[in-house]
Amino acid sequence: MFPEIDPHYPEANSIANTLKQFVSQSASRGSAKAAAVMTREGRMLGAALDKDTNEDIFAAMNASLLMLAQKATDEMCIGEFRQMVVLGDAGVMHLTELGEGIVLAVATGASSNLGRVMLDTRQISVRLRRCLDSPGSVQHAS
């Protein structure tokens, strides 16, 4: 299931297409099985999620995780939040800051290599930042 494209975000189609391509390519390597870009407030900007994933709940949970991570980095005086890894029995969730208030979440299976996931996430982040840096994007609108 793909989230509804918000007309307020002109780069949403580009983000969604980039994520779909990324997940498709990563699946063949056993890396990412789902990915999404959202605001820190939980507003979905583009996604390639499993059909059983409720994108609203997914975005809201990630927004909550990000808020807690930011508070923890502030409290521990370790600088600005950059990334977070959540390890579960069935896989890994890797969240990475793309820009001010914009975050990438990548979900993997349990057998995924964490180093490969982080490398793939870094590479797709570069491509997504190009989408976000385009004129009329969220980054330029704020």
List the helices and strands and how they pair.
Elements lengths: L11 H16 L4 E8 L4 E5 L6 H21 L7 E6 L2 E9 L2 E7 L5 H19 L5 H4 L1
Antiparallel strand pairs: 1-2, 1-5, 3-4, 4-5
Please give a handful of descriptors for the protein shown.
alpha+beta, Beta-Lactamase, 4 helices, 5-stranded antiparallel sheet, disordered C terminus, 142 residues
Report the radius of gyration as a whole number of Å.
14 Å
Number of domains: 1
Q: What kind of sheet is the major sheet?
A: 5 strands, antiparallel
Extract low-pLDDT stretches.
Answer: 1-5, 138-142
CATH homologous superfamily title = Dynein light chain 2a, cytoplasmic
CATH topology: Beta-Lactamase
Total beta strands: 5
The CATH C-level class name: Alpha Beta
The secondary-structure class comes to: alpha+beta
Q: Record the strand order, biggest sheet.
A: 2-1-5-4-3
Q: In the CATH classification, which architecture applies? A: 2-Layer Sandwich
Q: What's the average pLDDT?
A: 83
User: What is the molecular shape?
Assistant: globular
